[in-house]
Structure formats: structure tokens, C-alpha cells
């Protein structure tokens, strides 16, 4: 009978230890849930920042495209101006001194 009581006592101690372990596991799970919620909130903030950055990148790409178009237009205008100057230089080379002075005056008035 005493042996049975010892065995029963040992089983009860084991159950108490397992209950304590279960309670610790429950506490750990609760802590993990809290930490998981914090991580999820941080991920949400990061996603929000990433979305904002994507929008900024899109706007920057649009601006760069606009700048490229403006540069192309300015390059074309520059080429046209260079061609015009070349034609004037050639015309001046063929003209008399009096005509050159007249053309220079006209050009100065045009350029301004």
C-alpha cells in the first residue's frame, strides 16, 4: 500500500511539473503572439514606406522622361541654330565687305 502511495505521489508530482510546463508554454505562446503582432505592424509600416518609395520612383521616372524630351528638343534647336550660323558664315564669305557689314547688322538686330 505504501508502494502505491509512493507511486501515486510520484505521478502527482509529475503531473504538477507538466502543469507548470504547460503554463510556461502558454505564457511563451502569449509572448510570441505579442511579438508577432509587433512584427506584423512593423511589416505593415515597411510596406507602406515601400509603396511610397515606388510612387516617388514613378514620379522621378516621369520627370527624367520629361527632361530627356526637353533635352532632345534643345539639341534639335541647337543643331538648327548651328546650321543657320553655318549658312550665314558661308553667305558672308561670298559677299563683299559692304554686304558683310549689312548682314552683320541684320544678324545683330535679329540676335539682339
Automatic annotation (TrEMBL):
Keywords: Coiled coil
Domain T-SNARE coiled-coil homology: start-end pairs: 1-46
UniProt xrefs under InterPro entries: T_SNARE_dom (IPR000727)
Coiled-coil stretches noted in the UniProt entry, renumbered to this chain: 22-87
Origin: domain of life: Bacteria
Protein name: t-SNARE coiled-coil homology domain-containing protein
Amino acid at each position: 500500500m505504501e508502494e502505491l502511495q509512493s507511486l501515486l505521489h510520484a505521478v502527482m508530482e509529475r503531473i504538477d511539473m507538466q502543469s507548470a510546463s504547460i503554463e510556461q508554454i502558454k505564457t511563451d505562446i502569449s509572448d510570441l503572439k505579442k511579438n508577432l503582432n509587433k512584427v506584423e505592424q512593423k511589416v505593415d509600416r515597411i510596406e507602406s514606406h515601400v509603396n511610397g518609395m515606388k510612387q516617388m520612383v514613378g514620379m522621378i521616372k516621369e520627370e527624367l522622361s520629361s527632361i530627356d524630351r526637353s533635352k532632345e528638343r534643345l539639341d534639335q534647336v541647337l543643331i538648327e541654330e548651328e546650321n543657320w550660323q553655318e549658312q550665314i558664315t558661308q553667305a558672308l564669305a561670298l559677299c563683299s565687305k559692304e554686304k558683310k557689314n549689312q548682314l552683320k547688322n541684320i544678324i545683330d538686330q535679329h540676335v539682339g
